[in-house]
Amino acid sequence: MPTKAPVKTKFSKKTYLHWYESMQIMRKFEEKCAQLYLQQKFGGFLHLYIGQEAVVAGTVSATKPSDKHMTAYRDHAHPIGLGMHPKYIMAELYGRQTGCSKGKGGSMHMFDKDRNFMGGHGIVGAQIPMGAGLAFAEQYKGTKNVSVVSMGDGAVRQGALHETFNMAMKWKLPVVFVIENNNYAMGTSVERTTNVTDLSKIGDSYEMPSEAVNGMRCEDVHEAMERACDRARAGEGPTLLDIRTYRYKGHSMSDPQKYRSKEEVAEFKSQDPILSVLDTIYKNDWATEKQIENIDKRVKDLVLECVKFAEESPEPEASELYKDVYVGDYPYITD
Amino acid sequence: MRIIQYREALNEAMSEEMRRDENVFLMGEEVAEYNGAYKVSQGMLDEFGARRVIDTPIAELGFSGIAVGAAMNGLRPIVEFMTWNFAVLAADQIINSAAKMLQMSGGAYNVPIVFRGGNGQAGQLAATHSVAYESFYANVPGLKIVTPSNPYDAKGLLKSAIRDDNPVLVMESEKIYGDKGEVPDGEYLIPIGKANITRQGTDCTILTFGKIIKVVEEAADELAKEGINVEVVDLRTIRPLDVETIINSVKKTNRCVVVEEAWPMASLSSELAYRVQKDAFDYLDAPVVRVTQSDTPFPFAKTLMEEALPNVKRVMDAVKSVSYAL
Ligand SMILES: Cc1ncc(C[n+]2csc(CCOP(=O)(O)OP(=O)(O)O)c2C)c(N)n1
Ligand SMILES: [Mg+2]
Question: Domain limits of chain B?
Fold first, then answer.
């Protein structure tokens, strides 16, 4: 066990224990997914969030349930962080009727209407304007809600980002643009695609308030997100958060990872967000090892429950093909 | 003859043309240092260097426009899209710039460019990653479109596409990059605009293109066992269509089924059915029937995916229905 000089923090024991459990669920759930994928229990792509969990954990603790969330295809952790039972994600990966998108969306297209998680989007950058559009609607309706839209460091190269930043600033939309900056877009590092490697500067020509944030720490993410949300709720418009994080695994499941060194991966693993939260919990005497073991056991059982639920769930009926395409009846062409 | 993979055939086509013409270059996401997301450009960075094999950011609209400009100014770009699903972001440059430039400029500026990449479904990748785009672009005057279905065609058609002085779209598939087939050692070109009769038959013509031909071939084998001999026409090029080959085949068999992977509405099958009824009406013994993907976004679940796609049984049923053999 680590040495016990207490760690000063403005966050409560409850928050830390919640961060720990929530991130453990994300991590263990996805470790299981990787295993199941290799056993060919389900197909498609599988993009894992492992290593990046603090970005979601800190975002969720800093936002309100009525806020809106949207991200790209690396989208399993977001609904988990927002409180969706992960069995619905597992069932979606399995392509089952009980999945959160009824088995129609798969790994890249998760949704949870009850928790305002508005996808899961497969086209790189498509969520940037849509996320601002969620904010547009909040502003239009006169709410105090914020839209948090996440994108990768690769996605910021899409032209839509610039069009959106300009309008979002001009119209003071209540949106937080989050770059989940793991430094790689597939095999391409940030420095290989740009002259401006400091991504917190890409909002500068729109004078968008921006911050670089340590994404391996829930505390830092939470604080930056809170500042951004306060600004948005006060009618001051968007913020860009360049949250620096790291994915431990490959881009998807078929990535030989020749573009980075083992040392680099090890360096980030040494800053692991889950271990860092655990360290603070121990140092502040907020839980015994036994209590942590109990949490871990709970998480393990939860993950097994997810697999069981998915495997026991029915596959969609063929008739589902023609459902959910339109609201209302529609005369499909069938010949 | 040599047996090589579809991806190797494409690689040979690009590499040979780049050796032949200094103005040909390749650009796209992950094409250089990663050797291609689907390893089509394996080794090309090593041979040609970073000046001619160029990694781009994820900026389809931008790099496609840069390529069009480069083509207007004397170069012959090959643009790889990781898949055609992502090329929708570049559709403005393909449709409004590349396709129209020669006409708008009164013949002053042609755009000798190749846009290529995987097209259509590639397993359980769900709605955003599974669209068969042939008919979208087939609608656009100014473009040519080829759909190689095997390694031999891939090499011959891509080489012709690179040498063509017009914009040519090459629609490949992640599903068949690993397929192997005979490809001769020496150089050859396959002309754009010529279809290929891959199977001779007397009872019914099946018009098809791209990777779905594998389903058609399987159905044809099964039908043969039942005494129905179909003629399979692999269109190879879908713009311009090889009307002569199509019509001659239908005149011979008097029946026609179209099989395509895409959605039914305003599709290649719609166009082909029009062409056949117009030019071979008196020869038809039955209406033209088609087999397409379901009129829905492509679903993720395996069961639904299989339900959505053309399959052997559906192709067989279509042939039997026009043969009044059901
Ligand atoms: C428009 C578009 N182009 C290309 C792709 C293929 N693609 C999927 S993920 C990806 C890399 C994205 O990297 P990044 O934005 O950094 O997100 P990360 O995977 O690191 O979370 C690419 C090129 C796509 N899905 N959409
Ligand atoms: Mg990234």
Answer: 2-183, 196-322
Catalytic residue among B12, B17, B60, B80: B60
Contacting residues for B38 by C-beta, under 8 A, at least 6 apart: B7, B118, B174, B177
State which residue of chain A sits closest to B267, comparing Cα positions. A333
Q: Which of A157, A334, A335 sits opposite B57 (nearest CB)?
A: A157
How many domains are contained in chain A?
1
Within an 8 Å CB–CB cutoff, is residue A103 touching chain B? Answer: yes
Q: A162, A33, A179: which is closest to A93 by C-alpha?
A: A33
- B29-44 pLDDT, tens digit per residue, is 999 999 999 999 999 9
Residue B254 backbone class (left: φ over 0; alpha: ψ -120 to 50; beta: rest)? left
Tell me how far apart the alpha carbons of residues A157 and B60 are, in angstroms, rounded to a whole number: 9
Atom of ligand 1 at shortest distance to CA of A47?
19
**pLDDT tens-digit profile of A279-302?**
999 999 999 999 999 999 999 999
CATH number at residue A166: 3.40.50.970
Taking the CA of residue A74 as reference, the ligand 1 atom at the shortest distance is 21
**pLDDT at residue A279 in the model:** 97
Stretch B92-109: mean pLDDT, rounded?
98
pLDDT of residue A3: 59
Overall residue count recorded for chain A in this entry: 335
Q: What is the predicted pLDDT for the residue at B276?
A: 98
Mutate to test the interface with A, among B303, B309, B317 (most CBs of A within 10 A): B303
Query: Any catalytic annotation for residue B60?
Result: yes
What is the distance in A from the centroid of ligand 1 to the CA of A166?
Answer: 23
Intrachain domains B2-183 and B196-322 with the same fold? yes
Dihedral class, residue B106 (left if φ above 0, else alpha if ψ from -120 to 50, else beta): left
Query: Hey, what CATH class is B196-322 in?
Result: alpha beta
A·B CB contacts under 8 A = 134
Pick B2-183's CATH classification: 3.40.50.150, 3.50.30.10, 3.40.50.970, 1.10.510.10.
3.40.50.970
Q: What pLDDT does residue B326 have?
A: 76
A106 within a domain of the structure (yes/no)? yes
Q: Whose CA is nearest to atom 13 of ligand 1?
A: A185
The interface predicted TM-score of the complex, written ipTM, equals 0.96
**pLDDT, tens digit, 9 for 90 and up, residues A8-51:** 999 999 999 999 999 999 999 999 999 999 999 999 999 999 99
What are B129-175's pLDDT values in tens digits? 999 999 999 999 999 999 999 999 999 999 999 999 999 999 999 99
A97-124 average pLDDT score: 98
* Smallest CA separation from ligand 1 atom 12, residue: A185
User: What string of H, E and C letters represents the secondary structure of chain B?
Assistant: CEEEEHHHHHHHHHHHHHHHCCCEEEEECCCCCCCCCCCCCCCHHHHHCCCCEEECCCCHHHHHHHHHHHHHCCCEEEEEEEEHHHHHHHHHHHHHHHCCHHHHCCCCCCCCCEEEEECCCCCCCCHHHCCCCHHHHHCCCCCEEECCCCHHHHHHHHHHHHHCCCCEEEEECHHHCCCEEEECCCCCCCCCCCCEEEECCCCEEEEECHHHHHHHHHHHHHHHHCCCCEEEEECCEEECCCHHHHHHHHHHHCCEEEECCCCCCCCHHHHHHHHHHHHHHHHCCCCCEEECCCCCCCCCCHHHHHHHCCCHHHHHHHHHHHCCCC
Residue A12 domain flag: no
